[in-house]
Design goal:
Blueprint: H1 4-15, E1 18-20, H2 23-29, E2 34-38, H3 39-43, E3 49-55, H4 61-72, H5 78-90, E4 102-104, E5 108-113, E6 116-121, H6 127-132, H7 136-144, E7 148-154, E8 157-165, H8 172-181, E9 185-189, H9 194-204, E10 208-210, H10 215-229, E11 232-236, H11 242-247, E12 250-254, H12 259-264, E13 267-269, H13 276-291
Parallel strand pairs: 2-9, 2-11, 9-10, 11-12, 12-13
Antiparallel strand pairs: 1-13, 3-8, 4-5, 5-6, 6-7, 7-8
Helix pairs in contact: 1-13, 2-13, 4-5, 7-9
The structure holds adenosine-5'-diphosphate and magnesium ion.
Length: about 290
């Protein structure tokens, strides 16, 4: 049966925009020693904007951008939406329909269009040779500025890239600060590159980060954290985060996250308001004292 203190804690939480799907999650929160955060859509707004677009000069730019827009138009990824918007707004391209587009989670998208094979996605997907061959120093610098760099490959050769910048939520730094003061270790898990992750980690002040995570890597990292810290919470918004949310002692979803994240989580932050996490932990600690 639910203790009166737990009930009042749950209703207190609801008033503050923290939805507990059961008393046990509120009770578990006081034990949390570490919290893992997804980057895109959780620590950041998840609304990236294109900042740079470079196509090798021996290519027909309109043809490349037509293909990129057509292919990315079939993907639901936030990067894809930003890329399509940018191309539509800045170039005169017609949106044609490519043959089947394959979404490779954590890597990018690929398709065949007008007889050419296209791949659009992260550097690691293309191997070392393609990286060295194309403006490495430029893309390195962009990553160090916290931008996500997406490469365009046509018939096995990288012929261009697009850089996108997502904005860190204005409450993120405060939220991390409060958790640190409460003695909790903060870790960022992201599918993004090492240098982009490093830049965002510095901007948000998290204690640690793990870059180049695939959805299953996020689960592996969580299991490591559980071994090290005992009780660990995970905060996320995406379909990609659902397995990690389920693995964590307490899964916390951003209120505007995807349905799968909301369904999987134990706690929902109604207004995407990250500082509410520290508040929820205070609530849980206070309740624990009352129950004792
Ligand atoms: P995160 O964990 O940062 O939300 P994801 O796991 O969704 O990232 O994706 C990791 C990386 O894969 C992205 O940073 C991007 O480089 C690449 N990627 C994924 N989907 C796409 C896409 N539709 N178009 C271009 N790049 C993509
Ligand atoms: Mg996300």
């Amino acid at each position: 049966s639910i203790m009166p203190a737990t009930l009042s804690g749950i209703s207190n939480g609801a008033r503050k925009g923290i939805l507990f799907k059961g008393g046990v999650h509120l009770e578990n929160l006081h034990k949390v020693k570490a919290i893992a955060f997804d980057k895109t859509g959780t620590l950041t707004k998840g609304k990236p904007e294109v900042t740079n677009l470079v196509i090798r000069s021996d290519q027909r730019k309109d043809e490349v951008l037509t293909a990129v827009a057509a292919i990315e138009n079939q993907s639901n990824h936030p990067l894809a939406q930003a890329i399509v918007m940018y191309i539509k707004n800045n170039y005169d391209v017609a949106l044609t329909s490519p043959e089947a587009v394959e979404d490779i989670p954590g890597f990018g998208v690929q398709s065949t269009l007008n007889g050419a094979d296209w791949k659009i996605g992260k550097a690691e997907w293309f191997g070392e040779h393609t990286l060295e061959s194309f403006q490495e120093s430029v893309t390195d610098r962009l990553s160090q500025e916290g931008k996500t760099v997406v490469f365009i490959e046509k018939n096995g050769t990288v012929i261009g890239f697009i850089a996108l910048k997502d904005t860190v939520r204005k409450e993120t730094e405060e939220a991390i600060e409060q958790l640190k003061k409460a003695g909790i270790t903060t870790i960022m898990l992201t599918g993004d590159s090492e240098s982009t992750a490093k830049a965002i980690a510095a901007e948000t002040n998290v204690d640690h980060y793990v870059a180049r995570c695939l959805p299953e890597t996020k689960v592996t990292e969580l299991k490591k954290l559980l071994k090290q810290y005992g009780t660990v919470a995970m905060v996320g918004d995406g379909i990609n985060d659902a397995p990690a949310l389920a693995t964590a002692s307490v899964g916390i979803a951003m209120g505007e996250g995807t349905d799968v994240a909301l369904e999987t989580a134990d706690v929902v932050l109604m207004k995407n308001d990250l500082p509410r996490i520290a508040e929820a932990i205070r609530l849980s600690r206070r309740m624990k004292r009352i129950v004792k």
